[in-house]
Write a structure and sequence with these properties.
The protein has 404 residues and is of the alpha/beta class. It has 2 domains: 251 residues, Type I PLP-dependent aspartate aminotransferase-like (Major domain) (Aspartate Aminotransferase, domain 2, 3-Layer(aba) Sandwich), CATH 3.40.640; 124 residues, Aspartate Aminotransferase, domain 1, CATH 3.90.1150. The chain is built from 13 helices and 14 strands. The strands form 4 sheets. Strands 1-9-8-5-4-2-3-13 form an 8-stranded mixed sheet, with helices on both faces. A two-stranded antiparallel sheet has the order 6-7. Strands 10-11 form a two-stranded antiparallel sheet. The protein is globular.
Length: 404
């Protein structure tokens, strides 16, 4: 067995063992109650997450993708309406846009922070544009000040995809939408907030995922939506429950998307540790950066002044066509790494004929050839990271005794 074989991308078992007694007790409580659907733990978790995020309405659901779909359904968009989304991201946001017969409009991203480029938004705008979904990728918020200002100017909804950034804080001046709406498609009057604000609480609706590897992850699938708007919250709850407020009375088309009680109980325990988890991830990221910065041919993640970073991923850029060679070098040493993401959305077969592209997407294409994510989780130790960074240094400095 290789001495580095125990290194993992995400150490879920190690995290569980640290809070095993509390988790096991919470699970046992649910098993004893047999309230597996809509048990009291679901309501308790929603209330506690609402307090943590400082947002009045948190509606749990089955997963993060459902959250995005329900958010779009709540806005009553019509087939053919356009929704702006970054081209370099996980598929979920664009996928639900297409599922609802809307049109994904793909916009390039900033090469330094991986989030949607605010300088390119005007090129994406058309008379069919109704909403924008900024994705807070890898743990850092998109630049929400220009996004919310621009959306306000054009009467667009803002749906935040905070699946990778729960706990991140967006800084900077954030603007509220206008008090009056000039068209029937204009967004609600009061949804945005004043800084500082948690990711997912700035736009009209925020969405998140509790997939096990997320910063706040359950032991299966789970998700939630957040909003400050009481009417939107009511619509979201109705849609997630088969379009009904009263049992068997269906006011609109909905879906069946529930966070089960076991997952809610687990999440309620782990929420108490979220700040501790974020601090551990941040400390690990700083150790990576300290060890790797200054290596020619390697670009460490950039932290922007308008957002804190909770490092769902620690993602390097490896230019000069060296990314795959570095990945193979690490694998040979028993060190895992991952490529998030190997193809931009406009090059995926699923979107080639249904998405609209807004100008050049060259940065997204470049990033897909350069990005490499290193192991990142709450149980990373300096010793483990030293083994990882020493192998990276050996790759870029073969004179130290190792060849590529």
């Amino acid at each position: 067995m290789h001495p580095s074989s125990s290194i993992q991308m995400v150490d879920l078992k190690g995290q569980y063992l640290c809070i095993k007694e509390e988790i096991d007790a919470a699970i046992a409580e649910v098993l004893h109650s047999t309230a597996f659907i809509n048990g009291s733990h679901v309501e308790h978790f929603a209330a506690h997450l609402s307090d943590y995020l400082r947002v009045p309405h948190v509606i749990p659901c089955a997963n993060g993708t459902d959250a995005l779909q329900i958010a779009l359904m709540a806005l009553d968009l019509q087939p053919g309406d356009e929704v702006i989304v970054p081209a370099f991201t996980y598929v979920a946001a664009a996928e639900v846009i297409a599922l609802l017969k809307l049109v994904p409009v793909l916009v390039d991203v900033d090469k330094n922070n991986f989030n949607i480029s605010t300088e390119l938004l005007d090129a994406a705008l058309s008379y069919k544009t109704r909403a924008i979904i900024p994705v807070h990728l890898f743990g850092q918020c998109a630049n929400m000040t220009p996004i919310t200002t621009w959306a306000q100017k054009h009467n667009l909804y803002v749906i935040e995809d905070a699946a990778q950034s729960l706990g991140a804080i967006c800084r900077g001046e954030l603007h509220s939408p206008p008090a009056e709406r000039s068209t029937p498609h204009s967004p609600p009057a009061k949804c945005n907030t004043s800084p500082p604000a948690h990711a997912g609480t700035i736009g009209h609706i925020g969405c998140t995922s509790f997939f096990p590897s997320k910063n706040l992850g359950c032991f299966g699938d789970g998700g939630a939506l957040m909003t400050k708007d009481a009417q939107l919250a009511q619509q979201i709850k109705m849609i997630a429950n088969h379009g009904q407020q009263k049992k068997y009375i269906h006011e609109r088309i909905g879906c069946n998307s529930r966070l089960d009680t076991l997952q809610a109980a687990i999440l309620d325990v782990k929420l108490k540790y979220l700040d501790q988890y974020e601090a551990a991830r941040y400390a690990a990221a700083q150790r990576y950066t300290q060890a790797l910065q200054g290596i020619e041919g390697l670009i460490c993640p950039q932290e922007e002044p308008y957002s804190t970073h909770v490092y769902h991923q620690y993602t390097l850029r490896v230019p000069n066509n060296l990314r795959d060679a570095l990945k193979n070098h690490l694998a040979a040493a028993g060190i895992p790494s991952a490529i998030y993401y190997p193809l931009p959305l406009h090059q995926q077969n699923a979107f080639k004929t249904i998405a609209r592209t807004a100008g050049s997407l060259s940065v997204s294409e470049q990033l897909c050839k350069e990005v490499l994510s290193l192991p990142m989780h709450t149980e990373l130790t300096p010793q483990i990271q030293n083994r990882i960074t020493e192998q990276i240094k050996a790759f870029f400095c073969p004179s130290n005794g190792r060849d590529r």
